[in-house]
Amino acid sequence: MTATKTAPRWSRLEHDERREQILATARALFTQRPYGAVSTIEIAEAAGVTRGLLHHYFGTKRSLYLEVVKDLVDSPVLSVLNALTAAASEEGAPTWEAGVALWLDVVEANEDAWLAAISAGETGSDRAMHDILDEARERTATQVIAVLGLDEKRVPEARALVRGFGGFAEEITREWLQRRRLTKEQVRLLLVGALPGMVAGLLPEVVSARGL
Amino acid sequence: MTATKTAPRWSRLEHDERREQILATARALFTQRPYGAVSTIEIAEAAGVTRGLLHHYFGTKRSLYLEVVKDLVDSPVLSVLNALTAAASEEGAPTWEAGVALWLDVVEANEDAWLAAISAGETGSDRAMHDILDEARERTATQVIAVLGLDEKRVPEARALVRGFGGFAEEITREWLQRRRLTKEQVRLLLVGALPGMVAGLLPEVVSARGL
DNA sequence: GTCCCTATTGGCAGCCTGCCAGTAAGCCGA
DNA sequence: TCGGCTTACTGGCAGGCTGCCAATAGGGAC
After folding, report:
1. Residue pLDDT, tens place only, A139-157
2. Considering its fold, how many domains does chain A have in total?
3. The domain containing residue B38 runs over which residues?
4. Does A162 lie at the interface with B, CB-CB under 8 angstroms?
5. Staple A168 to which of A11, A47, A184, B168, CB 3.0 to 4.6 Å?
6. What's the pLDDT at A147?
7. What region does A57 belong to: left with phi over 0, alpha with psi -120 to 50, or beta?
8. B62 touches strand C (CB under 7 A)
9. A4 touches strand D (CB under 7 A)
10. A124/C17 CA-to-C1' distance in Å
11. How many angstroms separate the CA atoms of B34 and B43, rounded?
């Protein structure tokens, strides 16, 4: 026997499976260190494959990175969306309080992913990156507008206000998870109270100032 | 005469002068394209020097970039700080309304720099970058706390709230300058109203929820 | 057991950064 | 006015990293 049945040097996975595996590895590394400090060879080795395969699946390092960010941003957003629609079908339209509570739970559960996602952004002035984040935020704003029952057509300023509130929410959540200056309950109170307060107290004024 | 007085191939500038020149060139490029898409040779050529000189002055490409961002972030912040102290010495303590108005004027005047600064941020998870932006925001928060006359010692939650408001303000300003969904006057109304409203309406509630 | 598809490898070419030894601009004292 | 000296500035080399592609070999189909 010349053929001593050699063990396979590498295993052949299904396309999607390998893709997911590489993506997960890349995500782990990119959330730890900035883009430039992670090399493709490092990702490849961590995933147990060669560099060439990364390019086979994702084309370029940058597009792999974009894929990771997209993943990071989408997962929390989608979780909330799913949870909200589930809640809606169970007990009618979800209230604002319920939506905020849900949001906090999801963020708490995906703490690392969420922090990475909101501070992933905008390498200098990268258009593609900017678009991914902006679109996710815009989607969230749409959801919020729906839950609050705002009439976006008559009051386009509502979306701007909600986007502003989004910035507020991100920063407040950082105060909670990163800088530990607030508790979850305090964050809840702030988020629950801030937006309705502004909608009631400021939005009419802002609307009547149109064109100035 | 063998020596036909050859014109100097390059001119020798003073240390600080050359440094400023390179920095300005780098800023122009980095505000247009992301970090990775700008090469040192490009910066060098645009500045009319060689690549080696960049490293002579700034050591590494990354530290040149950090210098640019620091510059970008500091200039608007410092402008407002200066203007505020000037206003204060003229007519006593500045009011919140006056502070907001000032802020808007400064931002409007430095529109490009400001937009670049707030979206320059956080290359992936770059500590140094993060620190620069965070420190600038923290400084702004301090200023706001002072203008509003909040007692930070007794109410540490005030700073968290103000930071949250900072996120709101950044996003709202984007709505004005970038997405053009709000006018300057609308932004003014929102900024003037939002924070005092939250301080009066939410802060007490948040404080009494300490430890939860 | 054989064939074939394609997932996977391995190495080459080009670019870019960091570095350093050498060169020359231009001020300064004689 | 002229030589000397400081140091701003240049030019090219070395290492590393990305993008690419032809060759190889799992492993399922038949």
Report:
1. 999 999 999 999 999 999 9
2. 2
3. 14-59
4. no
5. B168
6. 93
7. alpha
8. yes
9. no
10. 19
11. 13
